[in-house]
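chain below, 177 aa
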Amino acid sequence: MMILSTSVSAGMCVLVCSRERVGDAATHLLVELALRGEALAIDGGNRLQAYPLARALRERTNRFDFFCQRVLIRRAFTAYQLLALLESLPLLTSPLVILDPLASFYDETLPVGQARWLVQRCLQEIERLKRAAPVFLLLRTCPLPQRRFLQDMVCRQADTLFYEQEEITSFVQPALF
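prediction:
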């Protein structure tokens, strides 16, 4: 995976920003990390699917059971749960992967001021956690223009940023006659 081809170490926050393929990127990243050691994944947008992860691991190794146990997955269904999970984590020696951390922050029932405060607190916790092990943020681009500032806050936190460009396809309707 392109992310791991660069030098990634403790003290780094690596951000991958994608329009839709966050789950696929997480699967590939977690497989690579599991083959190297343990990893913790926090899924903030319910994007990580267990079956594709298991299938990808099985394709790479015949010791599936062993490597599958190296990936611990936690899910956060609200912005408050994401903050609570981050606050409860001790300093880890294994990489932390946070998948779609802003998914619940885009909820329009969450007041904008509260969303900003929660993102600031989450970023403080990420800063604390990255001191001991690298942190990977896999972020889906913001679908709401009025909440795009949250994405910008997270992008400013990253030490390394990978941004997936939109694929431009030109479709031409063939003539019927």
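The mean pLDDT is 85. The first strand starts at residue 13 and ends at 18.
thats it, cya
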